[in-house]
Amino acid sequence: MSEKVYILGIESSCDDTAAAVLCNNVVLSNVIAGQKIHEAYGGVVPELASRAHQQHIVPVVEAALKQAGIKKSELNAIAFTQGPGLLGSLLVGASFAKGMAKGLGIPALGIHHMQGHILVHFIDDANEQSPDFPFLALTISGGHTQIVQVDNYFEMTILGETIDDAIGEAFDKSGKLLHLGYPAGPEMDRRAKLGNPNAFQFTKPKVDGLNFSFSGLKTAILHFIQKETKVNPNFIDQNINDICASIQNTIVEIVMDKLEIATRETGIKHIAIGGGVSANSGIREAIKSGEARFGWTTYLPKFEYTTDNAAMIGICGYLKLITGTADSDQLEVSARLKF
After folding, report:
1. Does 130 fall in a domain?
2. Who has the most CB within 10 Å: 59, 72, 274, 294?
3. Under 8 Å between Cβ of 131 and 121
């Protein structure tokens, strides 16, 4: 293998079609095409998502190669999201990647989406420094909430995960009750900065071990909104910032409680976060505060690497190649792919 390894990464697990080119661990391009069509439905419509991927994938890959300034013949491998995700969306990216790889005579590498969110920290400019092994990864997104012990690049153990709804869904569904649109997370975060996080109290769910639960919190928020608006129809408009701040504060406390237990039980104090919800300012500030409170060393990726992107898929492909862990035989996509 040449000293310079060029990887094309393709990500199509949900509603973003993304392609990136990496030279070793340096990102040369990172292109994302979103899908505005889902906003009208208040959530991602799988059939519409897969159709949009079919329209976007060729121009997105072409743009990534052009921005990187390389020819497809220079690629050493193509990495793609194997799962988990929406089956139709995964199939579009996987089929394109495998077909292109076969045509070029190079390996196609299937990548676990959540491992991508974790290993994004090993991109050259993702943060000030890469995590030391072992470390704990908090992966938080619209579909996942996990605490993972990472002993090496591809030696990972899930210590805890949500038993019902993911943290991103808790933000979005709560935001929907407040008429914040979709996705509601960013707007809730913005308003939370303007409100009082202690204005309203919500009971935190009691879940054993390191697992999470957010369905009960969503129900509590629903009942709270129904009760208050029955008394005062203008309650939401008059208290929107305080409501957002209080909801976000409760979710952050749930996350921090579990992380504190995880670090105490494992003795590991290196903490990395990843996934779309890791862009939330309240969570980032709370994690960072763990350095002074608990002696943690924390790793917060750049915002461009928090949402679904192909650079995280590309870095996984690169690490698989250099560690000799690439498997070109097991490439079938799976909506519920396990670690």
Report:
1. no
2. 274
3. yes
